[in-house]
Specification:
Helices cover 40% and strands 14% of the residues. With 310 residues, the chain is an alpha/beta fold. The protein has two domains: 12-135 and 292-303, Rossmann fold (3-Layer(aba) Sandwich), CATH 3.40.50; 136-289, 3-Layer(aba) Sandwich (Rossmann fold). The strands form two sheets. The protein has a five-stranded parallel beta sheet with strand order 7-6-5-8-9, covered by helices on one side. It has a four-stranded parallel beta sheet with strand order 2-1-3-4, with helices on both faces. Helix 2 (59-70) links the parallel strand 1 (48-53) and strand 2. Helix 1 crosses helix 7, helix 4 (91-98) crosses helix 5 and helix 7 (167-179) packs parallel to helix 8. The longest helix is centred in the N-terminal third of the chain and has 21 residues, at 17-37. 50% of the residues are buried. The mean pLDDT is 98. The structure holds phosphoric acid mono(formamide)ester and norvaline. Norvaline (NVA) binds next to helix 7.
Length: 310
């Protein structure tokens, strides 16, 4: 049976397991095609993508821009200052204006409602490039990377160590649920995930403040302790999070000599992860960052190019 097409890519909760797997397979096809032929087919020739940012970025901005170029399309960056989403102009008006110029909008926002409003009011596909609530492009990439290195994902375990309530943890749980992976969230009290998010993820999730939660993990994952927009809480967070650092001792504590380490980047080295781990043999940090390109090309090929999910 054909997999239904997506209209937007706002949140992984909107995707079925089959749609999620369809994007993973498409990402692999596009990555292999570029490796084998040196280029992709220009399936997005004549198509354009607006990259609308309310927050800084390296990976998201560059991988979307290059992804569009690889597929024969065009992308351009709109800075927070020039658009003033929600201050100079409402998301609803921005969406209706941009829909007359471009074939898709990728937006990085503070309030998640802004990407929902862009999708509701615009008439082109909208991609969530990170909101305060979720980071679905990152989680699609993370599972793609895990699939490449581990093969079968069923019943594999990711231990996420750090701020279990942030956007990256939220999307990681949802993504794990799509592919049958188990998740252990290891977070200090006060920074554990919302039980409603855990419940809706569909994943087998355990939540603990005990670092022994990493035992048996195939993958260890961390992210910054203070996300963009939370800068005023930095000192308060720095007082709580240091025991939750991924260092060599914590990697050993998995009891799995093959355990690998992931981080969405940017990293605050010396805080949530040590240099020895980030640059060591267990690190997947840079393959993971590079895979943003391939995972997002799948989203673009499907949403803007009509390539079906299989
Ligand atoms: N991981 C990630 O989204 O990186 P950027 O903030 O640099 O885009
Ligand atoms: N949780 C981080 C992820 C950055 C890619 C943040 O929102 O700042």
């Amino acid at each position: 049976m054909a997999i239904p097409a997506l209209n937007h890519f706002l949140d992984l909760a909107d995707l079925s397991n089959a749609q999620f797997w369809g994007l993973l397979h498409l990402a692999k096809r596009l990555k292999d095609e570029r490796a084998e032929r040196g280029a992709n087919h220009p399936i997005l020739a004549g198509k354009s993508l607006a990259l609308l940012f309310q927050k800084p970025s390296l990976r998201t901005r560059v991988s979307f821009e290059m992804g569009m170029q690889h597929l024969g399309g065009y992308a351009f960056y709109l800075s927070p200052a020039e658009v003033g989403l929600g201050t100079r102009e409402s998301a609803a008006d921005v969406a209706r204006v941009l829909s007359g110029y471009v074939d898709g909008i990728m937006a990085r926002v503070f309030g998640h409602q802004d990407v929902v409003d862009l999708a509701q009011w615009g008439s082109v596909p909208v991609i969530n490039g990170l909101s305060d609530f979720s980071h679905p492009c990152q989680a699609l990439t993370d599972i793609f990377t895990a699939w490449e290195v581990l093969g079968d994902l069923e019943e594999r375990t990711i231990a996420y160590v750090g701020d279990g309530a942030n956007n990256v943890a939220t999307s990681l749980m949802m993504a794990a649920g799509k592919v049958g992976m188990n998740v252990c969230i290891v977070s200090p009290l006060g920074y554990m995930p919302d039980p409603a998010v855990v419940e809706s993820s569909g994943a087998e999730v355990s939540v603990t403040d005990d670092l022994d939660g990493v035992q048996g993990a195939d993958l260890l994952y961390t992210d910054v302790w203070t996300s963009m927009g939370q800068e005023a809480e930095r000192e308060e967070r720095l007082a709580v999070f240091p025991p939750y650092q991924i260092n060599e001792a914590l990697v050993k504590r998995t009891g799995n000599a093959q355990a690998l380490v992931m981080h969405c980047l940017p990293a605050h080295r010396g805080e949530e992860i040590t240099d020895a781990v980030a640059d060591g043999p267990a690190s997947l940090l840079f393959p993971q960052a590079h895979n943003r390109l391939h995972a997002q090309k799948a989203i673009l090929a499907h949403l803007l190019g009509g390539v079906p999910l299989e």
